[in-house]
Amino acid sequence: MRIVIDLQAAQSHNRFREIGGYTMSLCEAMVRNCGEHEIVIALNGLFPDTVELIRAALEGLLPQENIRLWDAPAPVDFHSAPKWRRDVAEYIREYSIAYLKPTVVLVCSLFEGFADNAVTSIGRISRDIPTAIILHDLPPIERASNRGNPTMERWYQNKLDHLRRADVLLSVSELPRQEAIRCLGVDQRSIVNISADRDSLRHFSWRTTAARAISTLEQCAREKDKPRITVSEGRPKPAYLSPLPPERSCAAQYLEPIEQVNMWAAGGTRALAAAIAGLECPPDDRELIDLSEAIARSIPRCSKMRQLLVDVSGVAQHDNKTGIQRVVRGVLREWLAGTPSKIRVEPVYSTVNGRYRYARRFTLDFLSCPADILEDEPVEFRAGDVFIGLDYHAYGVAAQRGFYHQLRRYGVQVYFVVYDLLPVLMPRNFLDVVAQGHALWLEVVAESDGAFCISKAVADELTAWMDANGPKRKRPFKIEWFHLGADIAASMPTKGFPANAGEILDALRIRPSFLMVSTIEPRKGHSQTLLAFERFWRDGQELNLVIVGRQGWSVEELIQKLRSHPEFNKRLFWLEGISDEYLEKIYSVSACLIAASDAEGFGLPLIEAAQHRVPVIARDIPVFREVAGEHAFYFIGKEPAALAQAITEWLALYDKGEHPKSDAMPWITWAQSAERFLASLLRQNLATNAPCENYDRDPRKRIRPPAAHH
Questions:
Q1: Beta strand ranges found along 590-657 (DSSP E)
Q2: What is the pLDDT of residues 212-256, one digit of tens each?
Q3: Dihedral sign of CA atoms 336, 339, 341, 346 in order
Q4: Which H or E run contains 329?
Q5: Strand 343-350 relative to strand 356-358, pairing
Q6: Which domains does the chain carry?
C-alpha cells in the first residue's frame, strides 16, 4: 500500500518540542521498515527553511521525489488569518494529498496551526481515504479558557471536529491513550498505543514502534468502511501534558507529450476549484493570483513523463556561436532526437522579469518547424523532474538563485554543466566583470545537487574548489564528468563562406600552415605563438600561421599588431568569426594544430584536428594530456623561444614521418556524448548517506528533528 505521511509536526513550532523529534524518528523508522509498502512524505511549503533539513535526514532512505510539497497563500494561522484563507489551505492540502493516490494517510499531529502556518484537516473534500492521527497529548484547553482565550477554544473545538472524522488514533504511549478515552470519550478500540514500552526506555525500540504503526495502518486500510471515531460532544475534561508554543521526428516527439499535458490541465483541478468557489470570495485579485500559483505548485500537471528542463537561455536569446553554445546545440539536438520513454526534454530560458519559460518557439525553430504553433508558457515543475544548466549565462543564473532553491524544495534535482573554473582560478586573465560573474555563478552551482564537468581535469579542479570554498551542505554534492562530442556536423554547424575563401585556402596550401582555433584571449598563447613565428619568418622559413577566432578581452594591443603586421594576409592570417563549414575547409589544408592555451576546460580543437588527421602541438597541461594522450607533441615554457624550439623539433620529426600521429586519438560523437551525459544525469543515487549534522537528542536542546533509532 501507499502510505502518505503528513510530516508538518517536524516543520511547525512543534519541531522544537518532543513532538517534532518523535515525529521525525518514527518517520525514519517507518521508511527503513516499510517492506513492500511505499512511503510518500507530504510537507508544507509555507515552512521553506525546514524542507532541506528533512530531505537531508531522509537522503538515501527515500527517493527525493517521494517527498512532496503543497503550498497556499499565507498567512493561514488560526489566531489571526482570515477564515477564507485557512479554508482554502485545508482544501489545497487535502486535494494535493489525494492527488498522490494514498492507500492510507498518517497525520503526525492534528493539533497544529494555532499560531503558525501549519494546516491540518480531515474530510473537507472527501472522506474516502482512510486517515490515522498520531496523538501525542491533549492541549491545555481548560487553562487557556480560564485565561479568557476564546480563539484557542474555537481552534480546539475545530480540531476535535476533524478528529471525529479520523479512522484510528495512534497513541505515542499509554498515558495520552487513557486521557483520550477518559476526556474525549474515544472508543478504546479506535485508539492504539504503538509505543507500549516508551515509558520504559530500556526496552523501547523505534523498529517495533514503526512495525506497530504500519500494522495499524494496514488494518485501517482493510476496514475503511467501519464507523468513524466517536468523540463526546460535551466540554472535554481538563487535559495537560506540555504547553503549546506561540518522424517519428524529433519535432513529433517534442510536441505530442506537451499536447497531452495541456489537455489534462484544462480539467485536472476542477474538483478543487469547485470546492473553493463555494467559499466566501477572496478580498482582491492579487490573492486570486497567489492562490492560482499555489495550486499550480501543489498539484502539478498530470503526466507519466518526467521533465528534463534544459536551460538554453544564452543560445535561445542570442546565439554568439561560442564553443559553449556549440556544445548546447550538439547535446540538445541529440536529446530532442531520442531520450528514454518516460523523459520529456523541455528547453527553457530565464526572462528579464525573473521567471523561467519554456523555450518552445526556439525549439520548434531549432527543429525546423513553424515556430508560432506553441507559446513560451511559464515553466511548471513537479517532484522527480530534473533541471540542467546546459548553457552558461553567469549573471542570469545568479539572478535565479531563489528559483533553484524552490526547485530543490519541491523535489526537482538541479544540476549545472561546468565548462571550466578559469575566471575564478586565473582572474588576471579575465575582465573583472567576467571574473566576478563567474564567481557568483559558481556560488549558485555549489548550492545545487551537483555538477557535470566536461573533463576529468575540470572535475578535479571543481572538487578542490568545493573542498576549499564550498558552502556547508546537508546533502551530498555530486561531481561527474563527461567528454564532449567532436563531430561538427552533428552540432547544428553554421554555414557559409566569405567572398575571399578560395583565395585564402589557396594561400594556405602553398606552404605548411599552423592553425590556432580559439577566441583571442590573454591565456590562449597567441602572443607567444606570434613571436615564435616571427623568428621563423626572419630566418626565411616558409610557414603560415592561421588564427581562427573572435577577439576577446584585454588583447587590444595584440589585435592592433595582427592587423598592421607586415605578414598579414601573406603568411599570417586571422579569420574572425567564420562558419563551422569554413573551419572544416581550414582544417583540411592545415599541416598542424597549435594548442598553446595556459588552461582549458576541454580542448575540442585537438579532437577536431585529429578527425582531419592534422597533427597537434600542445602545451603540456593536464586537460590536453587527458584529451590527446600520446597522440600529440607537447611543449613546456611560456617564452617564444620555447615554442619555437618545440616547432623546430616537431618539423624535424615530421620530415622523417616520426612525429606523433593524431589519427588514433580517441574521440566520441555528439550522440555518444549526449547519451552518456544523460545516463549519468538521470541515474538515481539511492546510496545511504549519513546526515551532515549531529542532532542533539535532548528534547530541551533539540532545534531540528533527530535521526531514527533502531
A1: 592-595, 616-619, 633-635
A2: 999 999 999 998 766 556 555 443 433 332 332 334 455 565 555
A3: negative
A4: helix 323-337
A5: antiparallel
A6: 2-222 (3.40.50.2000), 304-485 (3.40.50), 494-655 (3.40.50.2000)
